Amino acid sequence: MASDYFQSYSVVGLLAVVGVLFVAVAFGAGRLLRPVVPTPEKLMTYECGVDPVGEGWAHTQVRYYVYAFLYVIFAVDSIFLFPWATVFAAPGYGATTLVEMFIFLGFLAVGLLYAYRKGVLAWT
């Protein structure tokens, strides 16, 4: 009984070792076979075919991250709404799941109201 148990894991372990060896051999062969001729042009930072000008540091507005964060919040909200709709249709779960979903939506509404009051949603 125990030998069958460990034998199934040994197959998985062997497959993992073969996968790691395959990747290592592929990277090693690529390193051995590629030509290495560094020139100043090859070592220069590539920027869409245009010679880079200035520093590599650029300022980014925080509001872009805030909008991305709000998008993620509402994407997660939609992910929770679809399973809720299927459970809501099941017998015996109607009132409980309805209350739970309104509590969840209430938390999201409070967060959105907070963001609106702080002026985060104003695009300037």
Plain-language structure description:
The chain has helices at residues 2-33, 40-43, 62-88, 94-117. With 124 residues, the protein is mainly α.
How many angstroms separate the termini? 69 Å
Q: What is the residue-averaged pLDDT? A: 81
Taking the sheet with the most strands, its summary is:
none
User: How many distinct helices?
Assistant: 4
Helix and strand string, N-terminal first? HHHH
Computed structural class: mainly alpha
Percentage of residues assigned to helices = over 70%
Radius of gyration: 27 Å
- Give the overall form: flat
List low-pLDDT spans: none
Estimate what percentage of residues fall within beta strands.
Answer: under 5%
Number of extended strands: 0
Attribute tags:
4 helices, mainly alpha, 124 residues
Quick structural gist:
It is built from four helices and no strands. With 124 residues, it is mainly α.
Q: How do the strands and helices of this protein lay out in sequence?
A:
Elements (H helix, E strand, L loop, with lengths): L1 H32 L6 H4 L18 H27 L5 H24 L7
